[in-house]
Amino acid sequence: MIEFDRVTVTYDGAAAPALRDVSFTVPEGELALVIGRTGSGKSTLLRAINGLVPHFTGGTLAGRVLVNGRDTKDYRPRDLADVVGIVGQDPMAGFVTDTVEDELAYSMESLGVPPDVMRRRVEETLDLLGLADVRDRPLTALSGGQRQRTAIGAALTSHPAVLVLDEPTSALDPQAAEEVLAALQRLVHDLGVTVVMAEHRLERVIQYADRVVEISGAVTGGLPAGRAGAVSTGLPADLMVTAPVAPPVVELGRLAGWSPMPLSVRDARRAAGVLRERLGDHRPISRVAVIGKEIARCNDLVVSYGNVPALRGVSLTLQAGEVIALMGRNGAGKSTLLNALVGLVQPRSGSVAAAGLDPRRTKPKQLVKAVGLVPQEPADLLYAPTVAEECAGADSDFRVAAGSCRALLERLAPDVDDQMHPRDLSEGQRLCLALAVVLCGAPPLLLLDEPTRGLDYGAKRRLVEILRELAADGHAVVLSTHDVEMVAEVATRVLVLADGELVSDGDTATVIAGSPAFAPQVAKILAPLPFLTVGEVATALERAS
């Protein structure tokens, strides 16, 4: 169905190819998982499948990409639309209509599908992806997860033979992600659709993959020039033994010396009996925050969008030294709460105070020194024509030493080219740049909305280190996230929202360890032992030896 034959992709002005001498095939009815570090070239590979590379992105493509027998050099993206459906990292960038139902129908209208067939497929897709209750809602009024499901649905309705997905679960809560992955499994197994998916959250998808395509990073990793952008393929269990990016279940398997390498929680639990015995009575070291003064407060906060309630009487206090995870299903009100704390939404009633200020009545120049927000769309914060100018502007705005922002970016995403335009960065690199810009100001209250979208495991570990340092220095950090593994690593407290109400508020282990939806992989594998991360297990084993 898909064949790459000695493909090399080089962008104008780039020091090295984004992909180098790539050859592999994906047969009909398989799910191929593309993995690699942030900025390694995954999106380039995906875009080459429907001809966006090089017809839209520019650069040169040597070799051949064949899709259902069509050479993408001869067929432009519009000529492959009946065969390939594609969903990018930024759903809003691909929308062409105003409402959910219209977006689902658009691709079929373009292909001339009969109206009665269109209606049936729209209804099927609304039910499949849980979008029926927002069918008439404007796309701009959707949560990030609802937008992502709409984008996936818009690609599915035309019934493509090949479905290409770039980070399809990054903005989805665990339940919604499982629903989407189950739908993809049905497409692969029952209808013979070929799915090619790039995803950083391997803990969600690795067990479903038929094959793995691993890209050696063109940007990170310190690889020899001849290896940058190279690709290797194989069975998931084989490649995961040595892959530089791996989910917690694999990291735990490496630590315990399990063979064959388990890829699912179920298989890992079966292998974990000896490990539980080795851990014995040892318990993880308690994660206790050194709590300082109050940084922010909400009192009976109510926010609505028109007649749609978003927050219903939320009251909470945020204190210095805390790293707080804000969790809940898509549309629960998480982003609204962050926006209220930074003054971007007008409460219907109740009050908000951040660093002693009323966000709605404080001038932006003063507020930015008290509260920093990295939104779901990091490009909203980036205006300069190059990475270097963006970093220099942040240093100047926050009156910090020259090079401070660039140093933060280097920690998060090493070796990003200073002269690149921010829009030409990968999604993960762009997020790292936005994070560096906001972190540079070191505000007392730091708000991060889905801060791990597009980040590989190494980048997330580096972000965890920075957030821990900020908390230790007396800042309060709030993460709105669906990334349960990130929460397990860094959060000292978890808040759970449901339909705009605060339904849970407690320490991390208490809230997430026993939750079917929010428990991390290690907690599920080693239950009833109270471990959340591989690092906690490694420390306990050292104490036991």
UniProtKB/TrEMBL annotation:
UniProt xrefs under InterPro entries: AAA+_ATPase (IPR003593), ABC_transporter-like_ATP-bd (IPR003439), ABC_transpr_CbiO/EcfA_su (IPR015856), ECF_ABC_transporter_ATP-bd (IPR050095), P-loop_NTPase (IPR027417)
Location in the cell: Cell membrane
Chain ranges of the ABC transporter domain: 2-242, 296-524
Class of this enzyme: hydrolase
Main subcellular location of this protein, as a coarse class: membrane
EC number: 3.6.3.-
Membrane topology: Peripheral membrane protein
Assigned keywords, A-Z: ATP-binding, Cell membrane, Hydrolase, Membrane, Nucleotide-binding, Repeat, Translocase, Transport
GO CC entries: ATP-binding cassette (ABC) transporter complex
Highest taxon in the source lineage: Bacteria
Gene Ontology MF terms in the entry: ATP binding; ATP hydrolysis activity; ATPase-coupled transmembrane transporter activity
Family under the similarity heading: Belongs to the ABC transporter superfamily.
Function: Probably part of an ABC transporter complex. Responsible for energy coupling to the transport system.
Protein name per UniProt: Energy-coupling factor transport system ATP-binding protein
Species the sequence originates in: Kribbella italica
